Amino acid sequence: MKLRICGAAQTVTGSQYLIEINGTRVLLECGLFQGRRQETYTRNQNFPFDPRRIDVMLLSHAHIDHSGNIPNLVKQGFDGPIFATPPTVDLAKIMLLDSAHIQESDTEYVNFKHAKRGEPPVEPLYTIDEAEQAGKKFSPIGYNKPFEPAPGLTVHFVDAGHILGSAAMALELEEKGHRVRLWFSGDIGRPDLPLLRDPILPADADYLLMESTYGDKPHRDPDEAFDEFSRVVTRTIKRGGKVIIPAFAVGRTQELVYFLHKMVDDGRIPAVPIFVDSPLAVNASDIFKKHPECFDEETMAFMKEGHPALEFANLTYTRSVDESKALNGRKEPMIIISASGMAENGRIRHHIRNNIEDPNSTILIVSWQAPDTLGRLLADRAPSVMIFGEKYRCKAEIATIGGLSAHAGQDFLLEYANALRGRAKQVILVHGEEKAATILKDRMEDWRVAPRVDYPKLNTVLEF
Ligand SMILES: [Zn+2]
């Protein structure tokens, strides 16, 4: 049996790993590669295997860098089932539609420019219709329910504590009497974040295929980060401004809503109106509410005290464009959470534009921002930024709060791998930039977590 690293090799996006066992091909993940536009398009368009020859797919969680190329896989001939946990299935369906919408509008823009230069039009990677077709391939399987997606392969999903529905996978493979246990981490969450249950540590595996995103550093204590968050919000409200928070629609937004609920309840921040203004975030929040079985004990206890999940008096979810625009006309202090998380598209750009020149308001950055994004320019304290083709001076307060990532930091990644010390033969590091993964690899070697720790290149084939 073989494992081929087809994506997220020495980088963090485009997760894809291909297992061959007893003549069957099983694809773990089918993520979008994200980077510069042209390279991105070509990489995502061309799979390093024939999609028609993939028999079955397993998906750890709904994030686009793990799921976002599924509609294209189906478009190019994949016709098998896609197994994932029930919340992942629900989230992936709406996220793929949203991604298709972005693909279509990006292509429209590119084709507008092509037409001006007399160049031929390009096709979107996939359309909304194709994303809908792909949605029909999903087959939900709950946590801790072993199933056999291919002859000789038994899988069970365990909680990864990363986003709603996220799973690690314990795979048992058997070919010609030879048995191997492979543990695939998916994205590893954090043990101490609010809302979701903690990640489960791996048990009994010969090989560990794991992510290494934050392999170079431990995270700060989330309590400290949330203290700072409440101070920023309080001082902005006191001076009569608005707090504008760019946040990923799935995961981060719901975490913030839960946390704001508790802060208002405890009197730590004034009870001003709070808006979640992003159709995807609103849909994702509905899915969170549908799956309270994924919440941690603290959240369950909070709900038992009479607080419904992700709902409270000051909170309004806005769907329509008119509701979103109306927020701009309101002058009282408020908190607006909107997507996208790096302010590259979506309604957040309107809210930033409307508040960036108001010294009473605050743009609050709560996650890592990729180079060249509007979010990154703001976080780097650019004196002015371009939004919708116009220049705006940055007069609002810009606050950045680290330590709220949904990924494990170095300390927990080490603890995770170390759970297999004395049992695993090899740790295979993926989903990490070179610096982070190399530092993590060195630490793992110091700790002697396994006889071998590797950080394979793209298309490396491992034989078991
Ligand atoms: Zn993820």
Topology of this structure?
Blueprint: E1 2-7, E2 16-21, E3 24-28, H1 37-45, E4 56-58, H2 64-67, H3 70-75, E5 82-84, H4 86-116, H5 128-135, E6 138-140, E7 147-150, E8 153-159, E9 167-175, E10 178-184, E11 207-211, H6 222-238, E12 242-246, H7 252-265, E13 274-277, H8 279-290, H9 297-304, E14 315-318, H10 321-329, E15 334-338, H11 348-355, E16 362-365, H12 374-379, E17 384-387, E18 390-393, E19 397-400, H13 410-418, E20 426-430, H14 434-447, E21 452-454, E22 461-463
Parallel strand pairs: 3-4, 4-5, 5-6, 10-11, 11-20, 12-15, 12-16, 13-14, 13-15, 16-19, 20-21
Antiparallel strand pairs: 1-2, 1-22, 2-3, 7-8, 8-9, 9-10, 17-18
Helix pairs in contact: 4-5, 4-8, 13-14
Zinc ion is lined by residues 61, 63, 162, 187.
Q: How does this structure look, described?
A:
This protein is α/β, with parallel strands linked by helices. Helix content is 33%, strand content 22%. It has a 7-stranded mixed sheet. It has a 7-stranded mixed sheet with strand order 7-8-9-10-11-20-21, with helices on one face. Strand 9 (167-175) and strand 10 (178-184) form a beta hairpin. Helix 4 packs antiparallel against helix 5 and helix 4 (86-116) packs antiparallel against helix 8. Zinc ion is lined by residues 61, 63, 162, 187.
